[in-house]
Please model this.
Amino acid sequence: MPVTDHLLGLFMQKKLGVAIAAALTLGFVGGALFYNSGRFAAEIGHMLASSDSVVAVRAGQVSEAGDDHADDDHGEAGDDHGESAGGHAEEGGLVLSEAQIAAAGIELVDVQARAMSTYISLPGEVNFDEERTAHVVPPSAGVVERVLVGLGQKVAAGDGLATIVSQQVSELRSEMAAAARRVELARTTFERERQLWKDGISAEQDYLQARQTLQEAEIALANARQKGKTISPQGEAGDGSRYNLRAPFSGVVVEKHLVPGEVVSETSNAFTVADLSRVWVTFSVSPRDLEQVKVGQSVRVSAPELGREATGKVAYISRQLGEQTRTATGRIDLDNADGIWRPGLFVSVALATESHEAGAVVPASSIQDVEDKTSVFVRTAEGFEVRPVTLGTRSDGFVEVREGLKSGERVAATGSFILKSELGKGSAEHAH
Model:
């Protein structure tokens, strides 16, 4: 073989070795480039500049160098993460100063013993107080001349609702006027006959007859006036055939079915007036719960849509079950001076069935789900500890903690979700 060919073969073998070594080097150091790409790229460039240096690199050496770089860089990154988090002391805990707690608006409460009640929740609905709801109907047939009130308007007892023209009213008032004149005439005749009888001029029989006539006239007038009160409770004279339809008591016009010119009768439902200062809350009780519901029992009525609660007492429980629902109906008399409880509103009725003393109770706002575990944030000297707990009875915004806490410890209540958020941020950073 010629010397030239021999040298060319050696040169090609060396170049091939350089290429293979370079490829292995790049593959193994790829991970190291992720952590410190700038510095390691410079080293690789230096090695590639000299073929003898590249050939000298071994896969094992590259791996060890990569591991060293990775360990060093990861340690630095880990320190950076820890510094950026600022509140991450250890797994399952947060480091926070008093100033940071105050700035975040986190309120601390003491774990205390408290009496807890077990409730049953029943569906209910707000209704009108039927004892203070009137369906106003015209006392006599006629034609509506004017409507004096609007829907939703407040009225006082005796206020006019509508003016109605009625032929029957005209006839009644004529009857009253005639009865009054007959009484006047009968009284005059009676006084004359009584004087004549005293003077011995006329017989006693004439005097007695005059007295009877007067009494009959007075009875007829009283009957006519009584009919008039059904049309005009205040005894107003009116003008011929007109009369005012009036509110029977103070309340609100919740229904109006009259318009001017409309013909009405004694059966027409003209207005509905309701006193909304008190309302009824009706609820259904299943047979299995009937033994736990008693008249006079305190209850809590809540409307989630309004964010309102009120307390009351059971006023009535039906003695029979509904034919369709097969449930008993209960009733609660509820004060409604501010008008918040509107008829038709669906509510929840909570009745306390039993009470017990709980050793550890916290506000419901302190309970958070952390990594699929029901937990609370317990105050420590450094900050907060995430403590898994086992819950018991809930009542009036408080929760019984059966396991995981003891009386005297302090937990985050208002703002506990902020701690949960910070803990989640720290977990994500460590994972990265």
